[in-house]
Amino acid sequence: MAAERLVVIGGDAAGMSAASQARRLKGPGELDIVAFERGRFTSYSACGVPYWVGGDVEGPDALIARTPEEHRERSIDLRMRTEVTGIDVAGQRVRALDRDSGEAYWTDFDKLVIATGARPVRPELPGIDAAGVHGVQTLDDGQALLETLERTTGRRAVVVGAGYIGVEMAEAMLRRGYEVTVVNRGAQPMATLDPDMGRLVHEAMDGMGITTVNGASVTRILTGPDGRVSAVATADATYPADVVVLGIGVEPETGLARAAGLPTGPSGGLLTDLSMRVRGHHNIWAGGDCVEVLDLVAGRTRHIALGTHANKHGQVIGANAGGGYGTFPGVVGTAVSKVCDLEIGRTGLREKDAAAVGLRYVTATIESTGRAGYYPGARPMTVKMIAEYRTGRLLGVQIVGREGAAKRVDVAAVALTAGMTVEAMTALDLGYAPPFSPVWDPVLVAARKAVTEVRKAGSA
Q: Which residues of 384-398 are buried (b: 16+ CB within 10 A; e: fewer)?
């Protein structure tokens, strides 16, 4: 009996995790695995690109978990610089293009994994394709940006967007000695936070020497006589630039899947079931930044592009494609970031998220420190907690502070996953010692205050 063939589109976290897990379960005689990657790198940490650009880590080799050669040693036929340009669902085949030779060909599959990732949002603006304008999503993107920085003599950088990518790239450019301006469409940086918490990020960025312009939409990219970027224009001002970094966010890369008639959700990501199978297709799976996942708190699907999810998706897909069993139940929306020494953490719903799904809520915001107040190095930390009106069910937590702030959000992520109330959280047995926490950890102080707000709401 001939071996089945598993075809994987995409050679990064989800795709190669799926291929590797499937190979652990089935040997070459039972399962042929063919993987296509259009870029020059595989199994890498895209999250590390801002720190590579900023000089904190070596790259690109240090960001690669497993090379193409290592995958091939495990009997995975990995074809680099090869782009899948079409999926024939009924015929169970994909069309591939070798980007170096120009050769195009069809490859049959019994099982298919779509892990095409996400692409940086690149608005259709005059000058957006000018030399010196860079999106940052892949190692190839990071390499291209570094090559531009090496050729650029000016020291003015404009970052468009103030989400995770935007603030991380602002720090990277600041560390490289650039004068940095962040142009942000929102009222405050970090739209994944409520505006009152985003304001804390804005104030901290200003204190670091980063100019943040909020409520401003870019209207065009201006260029000089040489065709290179020279400035970024908004409706009200022009900001000189020798290099522009797009940090507007990402969109699921699902054009190939949509063209094949596969189902997508409100955010444009592929829709899957709990086993990560594409809905309505028993032999096609999808994972990583190209899918939508179930938000366990809001009860609806959303697009969240994170390597943590992508690797978990790959493990589940590989288990199922390899004859085993696995499920991915969903997420609570946990993410952490930093800009210089400021740490940012969030999980669960923002105020507007809760309102959008019809939840009534109360909020509690407290200021504390990451260590006992008397211990050397204690730094301020702000924690905001959102709880459901009357029931007290935890809905979300946001934390902004210095050392020790961001990862405290993990406590809240566990509480959200467990469906805990803020009152139950106050009894959590968290670790305490003066170098690590006050007697009452900041998360528990916020929970206590949230309990008070819930009780007030209940008596109103």
A: bbbbbbeebbbbbbb
pLDDT tens track for 311-360: 999 999 999 999 999 999 999 999 999 988 999 999 999 999 999 999 99
The chain-wide mean pLDDT, for the chain, equals: 95
Q: Which amino acid makes up residue 7?
A: V
Active site residues: 47
Rounded percentage of the chain residues whose pLDDT exceeds 70:
100
Can you give the residue ranges of every domain in the chain?
4-119+251-321, 122-248, 343-459
Instruction: Please say whether the beta carbons of 366 and 383 come within 8 A.
Output: yes
- Model pLDDT for residues 244-302, shown as the tens digit of each residue: 999 988 899 999 999 999 999 999 999 999 999 999 999 999 999 999 999 999 999 99
Could you tell me how many residues make up the chain?
460
231, 238 Cβ separation under 8 angstroms: yes
Cβ neighbours for 82, distance < 8 A, ≥ 6 positions apart: 36, 37, 38, 96, 97, 98, 99
Judge whether 122-248 and 343-459 match in fold. Answer: no
The model carries a pTM of 0.92
For residue 248 the two structure tokens come to 């507007």
Q: How far is 458 from 286, CA to CA, in rounded Å?
A: 44
Q: Is 233 left (phi over 0), alpha (psi -120 to 50) or beta?
A: beta
Query: Could you tell me the two tokens for 281?
Result: 């297709």
Question: Nearest CA to 245 among 343, 149, 125, 339?
Answer: 149
Structure tokens at 24: 């652990």
Q: Which CATH architecture has domain 122-248?
A: 3-Layer(bba) Sandwich (3.50)
- CATH code linked to domain 343-459: 3.30.390.30
DSSP, res 59: -
- Tokens linked to 96: 């591939």
β-partners of residue 421 are 393
Q: Exposure of 236 by Cβ count < 10 A (0-12 exposed, 13-18 middle, 19+ buried)?
A: exposed
Residue 195: exposure state from Cβ atoms within 10 A (0-12, 13-18, ≥19): middle
C-alpha pair distances (Å), 49 with each of 139, 146, 155, 402: 7, 10, 20, 22
Quote the longest CA-to-CA distance of the chain.
Answer: 73
What's the CATH fold of domain 4-119+251-321?
Answer: FAD/NAD(P)-binding domain (3.50.50)
Is 272 within 8 Å of 286 (Cβ atoms)? yes
> Which residues on adjacent β-strands are paired with residue 96?
84, 105
Report how far residue 28's alpha carbon sits from residue 447's, in angstroms, rounded to the nearest whole number.
53
Q: In angstroms, rounded to a whole number, what is the distance separating the alpha carbons of residues 406 and 334?
A: 10
> How far apart (Å, rounded) are the C-alpha atoms in residues 195 and 201?
10
